[in-house]
TrEMBL record:
<keyword id="KW-0012">Acyltransferase</keyword>
<dbReference type="Pfam" id="PF13673">
    <property type="entry name" value="Acetyltransf_10"/>
</dbReference>
<feature type="domain" description="N-acetyltransferase">
    <location>
        <begin position="8"/>
        <end position="158"/>
    </location>
</feature>
<keyword id="KW-0808">Transferase</keyword>
<dbReference type="GO" id="GO:0016747">
    <property type="term" value="F:acyltransferase activity, transferring groups other than amino-acyl groups"/>
</dbReference>
<dbReference type="InterPro" id="IPR050832">
    <property type="entry name" value="Bact_Acetyltransf"/>
</dbReference>
<protein>
    <submittedName>
        <fullName>Putative acetyltransferase</fullName>
        <ecNumber>2.3.1.-</ecNumber>
    </submittedName>
</protein>
<dbReference type="InterPro" id="IPR016181">
    <property type="entry name" value="Acyl_CoA_acyltransferase"/>
</dbReference>
<dbReference type="InterPro" id="IPR000182">
    <property type="entry name" value="GNAT_dom"/>
</dbReference>
Amino acid sequence: MADPLNGVTIRLVDGDADMALARGVRHEVFVVEQHVPPELEYDAYDDTSAHLLAVGPDGAGLGTARLIHGAEALAMTGGTEGRVLLGRLAVVAAARGTGLGARLVRAVEESGRQRGAREVELHAQVQALGFYERLGYVAEGPVYDDAGIPHRTMTRVL
């Protein structure tokens, strides 16, 4: 059986063209499929975060994730030293079920480690809790609404 991820690369976003691909994936998944208003999907953290991008052999954007680190992460995680925030994980429909989402999560974790992180926090859609649990994340706290979608905070020690 052929590897569905053969030829797929994951890299840090570098420049406007990469960012346009990442934003295109997010638009398709969050704005079009999940009806998240664009004004909620794109925020000031986009300018200060590290973004990862999965690209197919044809150059098409297949997935993306965002890593909030530094002072922004400290503020968003309640002052937890050594914690970064994984967010905006999105994989286009055609690439779901291939393991790409898990590869993106691991790439964000590695990028966090390189920045000195000891823990990762994320805000998971409730329907994705099982996915993150299989990757070692633990849910904490109550379910809450974010952009009209039920979410729950999860963390993982690196």
